[in-house]
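PROTEIN DESIGN WORKSHEET
SECTION A - STRUCTURE
LENGTH: 308
TOKENS:
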């Protein structure tokens, strides 16, 4: 492991190596010896460090060899790792703070996209935009190009002002002169016999296609007044639900009245309530005795009443 070589590789500028190449170089330096600068990183460790496929990893190693940052000493084979020498042309120095500040200042001043850098050539003033095709013809003649006639491919129309003949167009239906004083052609009437045609889903849901018979004049839709079959079914369901609710309320009201009457009797005649309670207890006792006699024993389940 060589920390010194790895730090040197980490400080290489971006115009020398990109991020992926720097990661691969740092891994090779991490596995290198300080004196001989020989490294055996292994393809699996190198792939895990960089995070690329094996084919891409070998391509990155070849790019580093082309840049002169490493060189192959031994080619890897099955069961044997490849051997690389790091910085065969010499180990570059570690940059100081002043060198880093100068590098960052130059990078900030450089254009973001080098392909759009126009600092090497003087930019001419923008030309005046062409207003008509005559301006285009003048520029074409100045550039030594031919001038073609401007206009449509099928030919330009004539310059006479009477392209549209004055007067009313012929061939249209005559409109209603009373409703349309300017004799605007009227549109054909609707094909439906009703004032407004029925809804498209009227036949599917069982609605009348000729209008509601409860109206003196058939209408196309009667949902507002509730005279169509759908509204009638909804009203019937609502009436049944309302009747059920009233029946439940009446039963609950009668039950509450009976309960209040029983409480009132218990408060007014407590001796009758006590007599009824004693009679109920006597009837229960007689019932248990009859069941015991029918079972043939004195115990509660027909067996003996006691014993070990």
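SECTION B - SEQUENCE
RESIDUE ASSIGNMENT:
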């Amino acid at each position: 492991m060589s920390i010194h070589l790895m730090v040197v590789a980490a400080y290489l500028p971006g115009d020398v190596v990109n991020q992926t190449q720097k990661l691969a170089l740092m891994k090779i330096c991490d596995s290198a010896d300080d004196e001989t600068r020989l490294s055996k990183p292994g393809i699996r460790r190198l792939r895990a460090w960089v995070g690329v496929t094996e084919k891409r990893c070998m391509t990155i190693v070849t790019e580093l060899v082309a840049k002169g940052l490493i060189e192959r000493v031994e080619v890897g084979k099955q069961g044997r790792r490849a051997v690389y020498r790091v910085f065969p042309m010499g180990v570059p120095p570690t940059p100081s703070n002043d060198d880093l500040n100068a590098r960052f200042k130059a990078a900030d001043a450089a254009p973001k996209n080098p392909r759009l850098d126009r600092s090497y050539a003087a930019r001419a003033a923008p030309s005046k935009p062409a207003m008509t095709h005559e301006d285009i013809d003048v520029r074409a003649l100045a550039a030594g190009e031919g001038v073609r006639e401007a206009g449509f491919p099928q030919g330009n129309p004539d310059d006479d002002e009477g392209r549209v003949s004055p007067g009313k167009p012929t061939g249209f239906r005559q409109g209603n002169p009373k409703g349309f004083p300017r004799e605007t052609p009227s549109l054909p009437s609707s094909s439906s016999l009703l004032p407004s045609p029925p809804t498209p889903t009227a036949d599917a849901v069982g609605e009348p296609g000729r209008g509601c018979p409860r109206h003196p004049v058939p209408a196309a839709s009667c949902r507002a007044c509730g005279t169509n079959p759908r509204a009638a079914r909804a009203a019937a369901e609502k009436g049944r639900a309302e009747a059920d609710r009233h029946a439940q309320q009446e039963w609950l009201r009668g039950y509450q009245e009976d309960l209040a009457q029983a409480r009132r009797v218990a408060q007014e005649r407590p001796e009758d309530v006590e007599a009824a309670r004693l009679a109920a207890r006597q009837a229960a006792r007689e019932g248990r005795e009859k069941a015991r006699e029918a079972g043939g024993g004195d115990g509660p389940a027909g067996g003996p009443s006691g014993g070990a």
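SECTION C - NOTES
Helices lie at 3-10, 19-30, 43-50, 54-67, 97-109, 133-142, 229-268, 270-295.
The longest helix spans residues 229-268.
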